[in-house]
Amino acid sequence: MSLWKGFGELPRSQVGVTRWQRFRASVDVPLVMIIAVICGVGLLNLYSATHGTRHHAKFDQQVQWIVIGSIAFVITTLIDYRALVRLAWIAIGGAITLLLVVRLIGEAAHAKGSYRWFNLGALGGQPSEVAKIAVILLLARLFHDAEVHRLRWQDVALRCIALVVPVLLIAMQPDLGTSILLVLLILSVGFLCMPNLWPMVYVTLAGLATVPIVWENMHWYQKQRVLAFLDPGADPTGAGWHTRQSIFAVGSGKITGKGWMHGTQNQFDFLPEHWTDFPFSVWAEEWGFVGSVALLAVFAFLLVWILNVAMSARDRAGTVICVGVGAMTFWHVVVNVAMVLGMAPVVGVTLPFISYGGSSLLTFFVAMGLVASVSLRKHGY
Amino acid sequence: MLMPTGSGGSGGGGPSGGVAIPELGRRLRWVALAMILAFCGLIGRLWQLQVVRGDRYYERTVSNVVHERFLPSIRGKIVDRNGVPLADNRPAFNIYVTPKEFGDHQAELDRLLGLSEEESAKVTERLAAGQKRNPRQAVMVLEDQGEDRAALVQQARFRLAGVEVRHEPYRHYPQGELAAHLVGYMTQMNERELDRLAPLGYDASELIGRYGLEYEFENYLRGKKGIERFAVDARGQRIDDEAAAGLIQGERLIEPVAGYNVVSTIDARLQRLAERAVAPHRAAAVAVVEVKTGRILALVSKPSFDPNVMTGHLTRAEEALLNSDPRKPFTDKTLAARYPPGSTYKFVTAIAALEDGLGAEDEQIDCKGAIEVSGTRFRCTAAHGKLDMIGAIQHSCNVYFWQLAQRIGMDRMAAVAEAYGFGRPTQLGLNGDSGGRVPTKAWYEQHGRHRIGDTINAATGQGDVEVTVLQMTMAYAALANGGTRYVPQVVDRVEAADGHVVVQYEPRVAAEIGTPPEVLDVLHRGMWKVVNERGGTAFDHAHSDVVEFAGKTGTAEVRTRKNKDKPKVELEGWHPSRSHAWFAGYAPATDPEIAIVVLIEHGGPGGRVAGPVARQILEGWWTKIRNNPGGGDAP
């Protein structure tokens, strides 16, 4: 079964060196360290955001999710990414199926008119998160195939559909943030890895042309948020509330911050649900300009490191995986922080490893696991 | 379809040492540039928010959390000389709304409380004003509400955000209309006043003294508001933990300081007596002062108003009615209104004549009922026949004084009048204390031409002479005490709530007039006869067997101006063309203690109308008050 080749396998043995020793020698320690630092910041921040409130159990839950995520990271690292790339079509098919299932069974249920939350027992998984990983794998697969085969136009069309369908399904959920993020991810990978950039330029222009159509089909609350972003003063208690309060929180941190657990905007609940979409606001309020820049620097270092892995990957698939994960991380960070700083409309885009929530954490642990897997296998033995 | 190729990863092995996708290597600098731009954008924004505008946002987040609430101070009382409260405080339910939290739920509030249209309009108005001033600060929208409404609001406070009931002291005037002009009343401030007074700590829900002592002693009465600062969370819930306390700059609680009490010199018993005495009359003024100190014992101005009604409750309709009353209820008739004094002014002519030797006590002048001076005929009240000066005072013969006036001249009379305090405000400093008018030749030259007829008129308090009731009272007090004119005084002292005296006002002498005692003696004897000897103008109607007092009547003719003073409302027994009835005097006749002036506006003849009122007041004073100074009603 060539399909399962590579699962659970480490690079072939060498004389006199145990598997563990080889694993330790080749595992990407800096990557693990950066992730640990960001997770630590996230926990610190979450503790401040929830302690003494009825949400304090979220801290323990987040710790549990980090443990689960770490296990997922190790497993993903151990699996040869090439095996996963081979399964990319199955993965994207599964993701599309999940999205459709959610749409169908979610018809009856769920609050806010959103089909997003798909209850998998105790684990609140989100198919759109699965879709992100699946899309990254599919991209890797497509670049891999492009090297081996000449593509007919039917193949190109099929591949485009396979990428566009999940985006549309997620946009229809409606989860504008994630779908925009997916588009950005796909475009970033395309711009970075395509031999010829002109198709990407055409695709981008075509995408921009659809903006008015998207606007027409947006839910009113989504429009509200965008309008509130464009003119935050118009409705200070309504849609602009989050942004205004977030800006106050960030600004009030000044240079050195109000100190851990002393952010008033945070402690007095002026930012509802600040642990999911606005953790950076809490961080900036309590740690100030210095802390904010430091956190951004850590993220920048993570991105540089992922690019470094991409450059040293042994094959096209590995490079594309790293570029995909890097792009996903980059856009998550930039969109989330821009939203907190009032530079982007309020869309539900999480801050990697810091936002509260299992599915976001799990996605990023798996994504980083893929990078670690690529890193581990950069030297062909 | 899912597995278009069977080839494994092994086939994808790129050239080791180079980049698997060479395009990526070429585009790396663009990647770096994009990342640097993005992160610099974010950091630039952070710099703008946290470093450039940090202080401003910090203030905002503190004001997000820390709220201030004023704790009302208890306004000082106004009491009479015996401690009887004239203005006091009682608890009242006031309904407050914080505009920011309230939003536009006014229709709901209207329904809940069943507000009338007028009340609803008032709420809207006050909310709008509050919104403009500071939407986070509660404004009083409905004052002094009943327990029912208070309970309704209390129940609905979770449903209607930003509405609360406060239990606050409310100004109350336990004696009702008693001494209303003196005590005054309070109302809300208008926008302009509020802008002016806000720096002194006034807020929109407060009342301010508007009249009388409430106005003049505002600064003493008001006290100092307390401030409570506390933290609230985003839902407006109060948070009292330590973290919250750390945010609060300055004191968390500044206790309010109660206002000082104002102790008036008036005697509520005498005031009530005087008000009852003028009750049958439409419009009147009475002033009673101690002749040896200038302290005012009673000060009546009628028609009056109920300060309880004026304070906060007055509707526009009621106010319009009060303002349209031709008797001008808001003019203090003892201080601000000017009247021709009539014969009560004759003492001025007498003193001038006696002092200058231009007349003598025993000089007899024949009154034939009229005299003719430069072609004009001046008529006396009767043909009195031959009278000496005392008889002329007793009978109030005009001819006698007209003859004297021609010898004395206008300006000499004016000098005596000014020495007795006419023509200048009394310095009581209350309710638009008016100066009146003492005309001189120069004044007439300014206003046309001086004629001898003007001098004749001035001699009997007619023509252009105008005085206030309190001026007359102070003048008669000076006559009674031998020539010392005091500054009238209506406040004895200002006390703190614990009783210690903050300011003590001592009697002040305005002038030692220096009229020779023998001159005053002539007047004393004349005025004794006015009341106590048959033929005296006040004898028939005002002579008292209870208390021996002396005085002078006056029937001041009114110059009728066509149409101008025509009343819009006809009132029985009050017409602007009728004469004013005066009585000015002192009691007891020997060694006087108090001076009294009664004016019945457009009441008719002084002896018949004003005299009995004075007698009634003085009898009451003599029997019930004089020997029972400590308070407690009639012994």
Report on this structure.
The complex is a heterodimer of chains A (381) and B (635). Chain A has helices at 19-26, 29-50, 57-78, 81-86, 88-105, 127-148, 153-172, 176-193, 198-209, 211-217, 220-230, 241-252, 264-267, 279-312, 316-340, 358-376; strands spanning 118-120, 123-125. By secondary structure, chain A is mainly α. Chain A has one domain (29-376). In chain A, a hairpin with a 2-residue loop joins strand 1 and strand 2. Mean pLDDT of chain A is 81; it is low at 115-125. Chain B has 2 domains: 67-264, Penicillin-binding protein 2a (Domain 2) (Alpha-Beta Complex); 268-625, DD-peptidase/beta-lactamase superfamily (Beta-lactamase), CATH 3.40.710. Chain B has 635 residues and is of the alpha+beta class. In chain B, the strands form 7 sheets. In chain B, strands 2, 3, 4, 5, 11, 19 and 20 form a 7-stranded mixed sheet that branches. A 5-stranded antiparallel sheet of chain B has the order 13-12-24-23-22, with helices on both faces. In chain B, strands 1, 8, 9 and 10 form a 4-stranded antiparallel sheet that branches. In chain B, 43% of the residues are buried. Chain B is 37% helix and 20% strand. Classes of the chains: A mainly alpha (381), B alpha+beta (635).
In short:
Chain A is mostly helical. Chain A is built from 16 helices and 2 strands. Chain B has 2 domains: 198 residues, Penicillin-binding protein 2a (Domain 2) (Alpha-Beta Complex), CATH 3.90.1310.10; 358 residues, DD-peptidase/beta-lactamase superfamily (Beta-lactamase), CATH 3.40.710.
Write the layout of secondary structure elements.
The complex is a heterodimer of chains A (381) and B (635).
Chain A: H1 19-26, H2 29-50, H3 57-78, H4 81-86, H5 88-105, E1 118-120, E2 123-125, H6 127-148, H7 153-172, H8 176-193, H9 198-209, H10 211-217, H11 220-230, H12 241-252, H13 264-267, H14 279-312, H15 316-340, H16 358-376
Antiparallel strand pairs in A: 1-2
Helix pairs in contact in A: 2-3, 2-14, 3-16, 5-6, 5-7, 6-7, 6-8, 6-15, 6-16, 7-8, 8-15, 12-14, 14-15, 14-16, 15-16
Chain B: H1 22-52, H2 54-65, E1 66-71, E2 78-79, E3 85-97, H3 99-102, H4 106-113, H5 117-133, E4 139-145, H6 147-156, E5 163-172, H7 180-183, E6 186-188, H8 191-197, E7 207-209, H9 212-216, H10 218-222, E8 226-232, E9 238-239, H11 242-247, E10 253-254, E11 261-264, H12 268-277, E12 284-290, E13 296-302, H13 307-310, H14 316-324, H15 346-356, E14 365-367, E15 370-373, E16 376-379, E17 385-387, H16 389-395, H17 398-408, H18 410-419, H19 441-446, H20 452-459, H21 469-481, E18 484-487, E19 491-495, E20 501-504, E21 508-512, H22 517-532, H23 539-542, E22 550-556, E23 580-587, E24 594-600, H24 606-625
Parallel strand pairs in B: 2-11
Antiparallel strand pairs in B: 1-8, 2-3, 3-4, 3-5, 6-7, 8-9, 8-10, 11-19, 12-13, 12-24, 14-17, 15-16, 18-21, 19-20, 22-23, 23-24
